[in-house]
Amino acid sequence: MAEHKHGSMDIKEQEKTFDGFIRYVIWGAAISIGVLIFMALVNA
Prior knowledge:
Radius of gyration: 20 Å
Order of helices and strands: H
Number of helices: 1
Distance between the termini: 67 Å
Mean pLDDT: 93
Shape: rod-shaped
Helix content: over 70%
Number of strands: 0
Structural class: mainly alpha
Low-confidence stretches: none
C-alpha cells in the first residue's frame, strides 16, 4: 500500500467547483427572496 502524505493532493479543481456551487446557491437564494418580496408587494 502506498504511503499517504497529508496535504499533498492538488485540489484546485475541487475548490473551483465548490466556489461555483456556492455562487449558484447565493444567486438562487437572492432571486428566490426577490421573487417572494415582489409577490408580497403585488398582492398587498
